[in-house]
Specification:
Blueprint: E1 2-7, H1 16-30, E2 34-39, E3 59-63, E4 66-70, H2 81-101, E5 108-113, H3 117-129, E6 133-137, H4 143-147, H5 155-170, E7 173-176, H6 179-187, E8 195-197, H7 204-213, H8 215-224, E9 233-239, H9 246-258, E10 264-270, H10 274-283, E11 289-292, H11 300-305, E12 309-313, H12 326-332, E13 337-340, H13 344-352, E14 357-358, H14 363-375, H15 377-394, H16 397-415
Parallel strand pairs: 1-2, 1-5, 2-4, 5-6, 6-7, 7-8, 9-10, 9-12, 10-11, 12-13, 13-14
Antiparallel strand pairs: 3-4
């Protein structure tokens, strides 16, 4: 098959959106398929094109055997709703135009969201080429951002919801990352039998390679932040945005510093709250917190390997079906996971036995759970091993990619 993936995010960008079809696409290529990713120039999460990259009418490159076609967008920077809307809408229009003018001839088109505007472009391209459409939904927008208080419900939100319902009805396959999201998508208009759960995960073999190859680079990175590797380290690696609840983690850091605890908390990433977090660290004199990055995702496994524990945190939210993808990478690293989040992710962590679980916003539990990991190295090691075994069984990208390919092949066969 020739698989066309339309994605707002792709390597070298950080985080789950770029990783999902970077990893899956590489596995598709290894299985003998041709993969084209239609994306834009790297700019996530700040909305500014990365240094060393320059927008053009079009650019082509090959990444891990994947044909990557880049198309421009309106990258204004900043995190206001209007600037984000311009970013998302401009990519959708650019991708639709760029993809429509090229003789790509795919057998199937996948649009991976959020933002939902990507799916409008991918559905248009599927119609243009007369092939089945797949919509891959990692989070349900605009519902999720309205529930988080980041935008207000109104005419624009209702219009997006109407368009999303059209995409759901007209897609041959709908894939999503958790059971709760599958149920919600059926309520929102997806056809029975079309919605399948393909969770996020990690390519464990590649993860191990990167951990070995970048061992010295990780040591140098942590040393550059002033981290003392002789002391315990709790690592958060991901985006610094409001839903992650990182202010709560700093609150816990302040408590631990006040009582002279040696645990160092390291935040690696970037996002809307970076300046705010740095200001808090400086103003409150949080000497036990270090903040760095963003870094290339190839460095993350080696950073996990040098940590005592990983932290997966979300602030309280209305939906209970969000599963942060970083939990799978943390488990892949064989390090215990300290979870502070509600809903479906708690069930996964408990089933995996990967570490202590606390409710979102319960900072007392988060503090105590960090103590559990630091105070009992034997138990921490057992939790890390249990999480690794769970990730190998249920969340290895190689296994997930084959399940995805089976869905794609069945959709193509039905369309013939």
């Amino acid at each position: 098959m020739h698989i066309l993936v339309v994605s707002q995010f792709f390597a070298p960008e950080m985080g789950a959106p770029a990783a999902r079809f970077g990893d899956l696409g590489r596995q598709f290529v290894a299985a003998g398929h041709r993969v084209t990713v239609l994306t834009t120039f790297p700019n996530f999460p700040q909305g500014k094109v990365y240094p060393g990259h320059r927008q053009a009418v079009a650019a082509r490159e090959t990444v891990d055997g994947i044909d990557v076609l880049r198309t421009p967008l309106l990258a204004l920077g900043g995190h206001s709703p209007l600037r984000k809307a311009a970013l998302y809408a401009s990519f959708a229009g650019s991708a639709l135009l760029q993809g429509g003018l090229r003789a790509l001839r795919p057998d199937i088109v996948i649009g991976t969201t959020p933002p939902p505007t990507v799916a409008y472009a991918s559905l248009g391209l599927a119609r243009r080429f007369g092939v089945p459409h797949v919509v891959d939904i990692r989070d349900i927008w605009p519902e999720a951002v309205v529930n988080a208080g980041r935008v207000q419900a109104g005419a624009a939100v209702r219009a997006l919801e109407s368009l999303n319902a059209v995409v759901l009805r007209q897609s041959a396959v709908v894939t999503t990352v958790s059971e709760g999201k599958r149920e919600r998508l059926l309520q929102l208009g997806a056809r029975a039998g079309t919605v399948h759960v393909l969770p996020n995960g990690a390519d464990l073999d590649q993860f191990d390679r990167w951990a070995t190859e970048h061992k010295q680079a990780a040591r140098a990175f942590l040393g550059g932040l002033g981290v003392d590797e002789r002391l315990p380290i709790a690592l958060y690696a991901g985006v610094f945005n409001p839903p992650q609840g990182l202010d709560g983690l700093l609150d816990v850091a302040a408590r631990r510093q006040a009582r002279g605890d040696p645990l160092q908390i390291v935040l690696v990433g970037d996002g809307a709250l970076r300046d705010h977090l740095q200001q808090r660290i400086a103003t409150e004199g949080l000497a036990n917190v270090r903040i760095g990055g963003p870094v290339d995702r190839t460095l993350i496994p080696a950073l996990y390997a040098r940590s005592t524990a990983t932290v997966v945190i979300l602030r309280p939210r209305k939906d209970t079906h969000t599963v942060p993808s970083k939990i799978y990478e943390a488990m892949a690293a064989g390090r215990p996971v300290v979870l502070s989040a509600d809903g479906e992710v708690q069930s996964i962590a408990r089933a995996a036995g990967c570490g202590p679980v606390g409710d979102a916003g319960d900072l007392t539990a988060l503090d105590a759970n960090l103590d559990r990991i630091v105070g009992d190295s034997e138990a921490a090691q057992a939790m890390g091993a249990s999480g690794r075994a769970y990730a190998r069984q249920f969340n290895d990208r190689a296994v997930l990619a084959q399940r995805y390919l089976d869905l794609l092949a069945a959709a193509v066969d039905r369309d013939r």
